[in-house]
Write a structure and sequence with these properties.
Layout lengths: L5 H9 L9 E8 L7 E3 L1 E5 L3 E2 L4 H4 L15 E5 H7 L4 H4 L6 E4 L11 E5 L2 E9 L4 H7 L1 H9 L8 E7 L1 E4 L3 E8 L8
Parallel strand pairs: 5-6
Antiparallel strand pairs: 1-2, 1-6, 1-11, 3-4, 3-10, 5-9, 7-8, 7-11, 8-9
Length: about 190
């Protein structure tokens, strides 16, 4: 499977219009009911400490945590839909392989949403976690080493996206607006 080069990715990203810094929008939602299984859905229900209902976040756990349990600051992965579309070379089916559950048209940079920033989507509230969201070996395998390096290269722009924690339960649907809130947290679990 051919993957894009760093030069191709960089050129395409440079042509994107700026992402909204507020009033962004949810473009795609998906759940991962089992490892390496993806389901694109129209809406999700989120719960504090559990992430997305029906996602395997809790059951999957995390081999890098001391107890093997799911990392509490990585409940949900959010990524810019336009960046992922470029990395997947326009292949919608391939883009689901990234595993990010909420794809948005929204500025995810540290300048716009530093750790602790809270935002609402639908009836739910989220907080940007301190834990960075980095591309793993599976990401490199699916999108190529150049895409993986690019996605992880800019810690300010956060091309690979962000981890968020659920602050208040609620429903989120495709097309929902993303609104930054004045209230902030500290980016650590549990959100306070």
């Amino acid at each position: 499977m051919a993957h894009l080069s760093t030069q191709q990715i960089t050129e395409r990203v440079s042509q994107l219009p700026p992402a909204p810094t507020n009033n962004g929008v949810v473009k795609t939602l998906l759940i991962r009911p089992e490892t390496d299984t993806r389901e694109v859905v129209a809406s999700i229900r989120v719960v504090p400490g559990e992430g997305i209902v029906g996602d395997n976040y809790i059951a999957r756990g995390n081999e890098k945590t001391p107890d093997g349990k799911a990392h509490p600051e990585a409940q949900i992965c959010v990524m810019n839909a336009n960046i992922l579309d470029i990395l997947a070379d326009g292949d919608t089916e391939k883009s689901t392989l990234a595993g990010d559950q909420i794809l948005v048209d929204f500025d995810l940079s540290t300048d716009n949403v530093p750790a602790g920033t809270r935002f609402s989507i639908g009836s739910a509230t989220f907080e940007v976690a301190n834990k960075p969201h980095n591309g793993c070996a599976k990401f490199a395998q699916r999108f190529g080493m150049d895409a993986s390096r690019f996605a992880n290269s800019d810690k300010v722009q956060r091309y690979r996206g962000i981890n968020v924690m659920v602050v208040t339960k609620g429903e989120v649907s495709v097309g929902d607006q993303i609104t930054k809130l004045e209230e902030t947290g500290n980016g650590s679990f549990p959100p306070t």
